[in-house]
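Severity: low
Component: inverse-folding endpoint
Summary: output formatting inconsistent between runs
Steps to reproduce: submit the following structure tokens with default settings.
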């Protein structure tokens, strides 16, 4: 297994952990929750790009609590992996 495959495997494991650690997803989030989650996601994704995994995990976790989408879950897993929380 090369470094890239190892990184992918670790990221997949982190994503699975994030998805499994959160219970039932909100059936129908309100439009306000979706808008708030979108803003939190943007802030979290920007923090992740800037290398601030702690801030990213916090914002992305808040977004995930409101709306569970694959994009939010994936970036939350990336932030958690960057923090060493596998």
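Observed output (run 2 of 3):
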């Amino acid at each position: 297994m090369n470094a890239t495959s190892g990184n992918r495997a670790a990221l997949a494991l982190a994503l699975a952990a994030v998805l499994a650690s959160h219970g039932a997803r909100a059936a129908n989030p309100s439009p306000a929750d979706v808008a708030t989650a979108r803003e939190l996601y943007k802030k979290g994704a920007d923090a992740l790009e800037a290398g601030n995994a702690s801030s990213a995990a916090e914002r992305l976790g808040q977004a995930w609590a409101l709306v569970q989408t694959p994009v939010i879950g994936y970036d939350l897993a990336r932030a958690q992996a960057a923090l060493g929380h596998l």
